[in-house]
Amino acid sequence: MLALIGGTGLNTLEGIGGFDLLHKEEIATPFADTQIQLSRYVYAGTELLFIPRHGDGHVVPPHRINYRGNIDALRLAGATRVVAMNAIGGIAPELCPGAIAIPEQLIDYSYGRISSFYEDNLEGVVHIDFGEPYNQELRQALLEAAARVNAGCQQPATVIDGGVYGCTQGPRLETNAEISRMRADGCTMVGMTGMPEAALAREAGLDYATIGLVVNWAAGLTQETITLDEIYAVIDTASPFLHALLRELIAPSSRVQ
Length: 257
Ligand code: HPA
What we know:
Blueprint: E1 2-6, E2 19-27, E3 36-43, E4 46-52, H1 67-76, E5 81-90, E6 100-102, E7 105-108, H2 136-151, E8 159-161, E9 164-167, H3 176-185, E10 189-191, H4 197-203, E11 207-217, H5 228-250
Parallel strand pairs: 1-4, 1-5, 5-11, 6-8, 7-9, 9-10
Antiparallel strand pairs: 2-3, 3-4, 5-10, 6-11
Helix pairs in contact: 2-5
């Protein structure tokens, strides 16, 4: 079963055409004192799970998210594939505000986050393979769904296949020098929530891929200050495409690419 992890700008699927809420569930996991809340939806006869990464009402900052609780709850509820939605800053020139990226690689600059299900397991050291952090089949399914949506609309979205997601600690945005360093490292986009989520999904045996929505140019790439108002304006404009992409992923139409 597919699970969606909503990021900034997608806190719920309620109100999105065609998605019907079946019920909300509370899942107990060993990784959280309180139960993790998730929602079970149906779209075109297909059930899916949804969890808002920042909690109901977008209240949990990136460094305080219970990434282990969220991933374990999705696994326990029956998820096998996870599509994560992340707002990102664009570093590469093609990743302008409004563009969508399906990254292929990542570099983790975050720190102090509990980043493994095996953190306290001293019975045996577990090293997962993480050379390819994102699942290629799921990435391809997203790219094909995006191409079908674009084929059927008058103003196609810019969709970038690949790129390197740099995960910073937040909640502050980066300095100009940090972005220069990340660009030199090969990062094409920057966000705060991609890790340890992707690694935990791998540890849990879940296929995982990310839809990155570029909501601003990364620090130092324009003269302008990054404001939340502008970020939310980009999210509003991009939302219809994102919703169509999710629909197309879940129930592919026969539209010719
Ligand atoms: N930096 C880090 N995370 C982000 C950004 C950014 O510029 N935009 C959206 N999430």
